[in-house]
Structure formats: structure tokens, C-alpha cells
Specification:
Radius of gyration: 31 Å
CATH architecture of the largest domain: 3-Layer(aba) Sandwich
Distance between the termini: 51 Å
Helix content: 25-40%
Largest sheet: 6 strands, antiparallel, barrel
CATH topology of the largest domain: Rossmann fold
Oligomer: single chain
Shape: rod-shaped
Number of helices: 7
Strand content: 25-35%
Strand order of the largest sheet: 1-2-3-6-5-4
CATH superfamily of the largest domain: Response regulator
Structural class: alpha/beta
CATH class of the largest domain: Alpha Beta
Number of domains: 2
Length: 247
């Protein structure tokens, strides 16, 4: 399959199975074939052929074909064969409309399995702070399926107490918090341990340059609400990969 855009070709190389090979100018396309101009004197009917399309000097796409009509002294009509690949079908349809053939998007790599993710995050200690108790419990439940030890709190002052009592591998915190603003809490966390990974969650970062500002205040990751838990898991796996779990 093509991995780049392919413009409408201007010429083709026709290779007949039982006859001559020749280069020709393309006169027209239709969804199942092409008509090329040629006055080749020795052209005979042939059951099969291969058409190699060119634009400028670059080879584009190869089309298995069969000779449908031979107009002596003018050209030949070539139809796609039954085994024509999907790439050729797409190309002919686009070229008939005068359009460029766009590359087919490649599928994203498969996500690691839950077992693989759980192995990577097993034993990691995560502290989550948010004034939304339902969200806290959801995050705690999901992260525990990955083998994390998850503490939750809706009290910003309690965050500092918990960290003093027991270090964690990462903190996930809301930006709009009661008692202590997110910016202030983030500053305190980074002042105590500038290497501590901290992700900020928010659905209200609506001012110009908000993401840059939050990162400038010390956040290692910004997570939008509604929360994409998989994105959070990917980030936790990346930032705690070499931590080995804190003792």
C-alpha cells in the first residue's frame, strides 16, 4: 500500500503477458480501468497485462489488468483484473475524479494488555486529590486494577500530611481545590521534592496559554476532564518506570 499521497499519473508502462511492452500517455480513467494512447504497430490482443503508473519519473502503483478494447492506431482500453488489490481500486476511483490518492491511515499499535500494564505499575503508590468524591473513588478503583496502591483525599492540607508520613511515586491533583489553590499546592509539592511527578486535572483551564502556565508552575502532565484514565495510566507508567516503587 502507498504510504504517501499519489497524484493523478500522466503516463503508464503497459506490459502485455504475450505481447510487447510499451510506454504510453494516459488519456482517461474510469473506476475499473484506463485508456492509454499508443500507435504500437505490433500490438495483439492479450488476455493479461500489467499497468505501471508513473507521475514525473516516480513509479506510482501497479495494476493487474486485461485488455478490453484495442483501437488500432489509437490506443488500448485496459480493465482491472479480478485480483486487483484494494489500493488499485481506491486509486482508480480517485483518479477518475481527478483527485490525489491519500495514504491509508495505519492502525495504531495495540495497547498493552491489562496484565502487562498491571505488571508495569504493580506496587506503585499514587496519591490522588480532588474535591469530587465520586471521581476520586473511580480513579482509585481503576488504578487498583493495575496493581497500584492508591490513596485518595479531598483535603489539600491532608496531602502534605500524608506525604510526610509516607512518600508516593506520583501525585494526581485537581487544579480547582478548596482551602489551598492548585497553584499553591503544586508549588509546595515541588518545593519539597522537585523530582516528584505531579499531574494536574482540570476542566476549567480556559484562559489563553493555560496549559503552558500550569506546566510553568511545575506540573509534569495536564489531564483534561472528563478524565481519560488510559492517558493517566500511560503517564504513570512512563514516569514511574524506573522508580521501582518507593520504600
Amino acid at each position: 500500500m502507498t504510504d504517501h499521497a499519489v497524484g493523478v499519473p500522466e503516463r503508464a508502462r503497459v506490459e502485455l503477458n504475450d505481447g510487447p511492452h510499451f510506454d504510453a500517455v494516459i488519456q482517461s480513467f474510469w473506476p475499473s480501468g484506463v485508456f492509454v494512447l499508443t500507435d504500437h504497430p505490433d500490438l495483439q490482443y492479450s488476455g493479461g497485462a500489467k499497468v505501471i503508473f508513473f507521475k514525473d519519473t516516480a513509479k506510482q502503483i501497479e495494476m493487474p489488468a486485461q485488455v478490453a478494447t484495442w483501437v488500432r492506431g489509437r490506443g488500448v482500453r485496459l480493465e482491472t483484473s479480478a485480483e486487483a488489490p484494494e489500493e488499485v481500486v481506491r486509486a482508480l476511483g480517485a483518479w477518475t475524479r481527478g483527485e490525489t490518492v491519500e495514504p491509508v491511515p495505519q492502525p495504531s499499535p495495540a495497547r498493552p494488555s491489562l496484565a502487562e500494564q498491571a505488571q508495569a505499575l504493580a506496587g506503585r503508590r499514587i496519591l490522588v486529590v480532588d474535591d469530587d468524591v465520586a471521581l476520586l473513588k473511580m480513579v482509585q478503583r481503576r488504578l487498583r486494577t493495575f496493581g497500584c496502591e492508591v490513596e485518595i483525599t479531598s483535603s489539600p492540607p491532608e496531602v502534605l500530611e500524608r506525604l510526610s508520613a509516607r512518600p508516593v511515586d506520583a501525585v494526581v491533583m485537581d487544579w480547582m481545590l478548596p482551602e489551598i489553590p492548585g497553584r499553591q499546592l503544586l508549588g509546595v509539592l515541588k518545593a519539597q521534592d522537585r523530582h516528584l511527578p505531579v499531574a494536574v486535572m482540570s476542566g476549567q483551564l480556559c484562559w489563553d496559554g493555560a496549559y503552558e502556565d500550569v506546566v510553568g508552575f511545575g506540573a509534569d502532565m495536564v489531564l483534561e476532564k472528563p478524565l481519560d484514565v488510559w492517558r493517566m495510566v500511560d503517564w504513570l507508567q512512563a514516569v514511574t518506570r524506573d522508580a521501582g516503587g518507593l520504600v
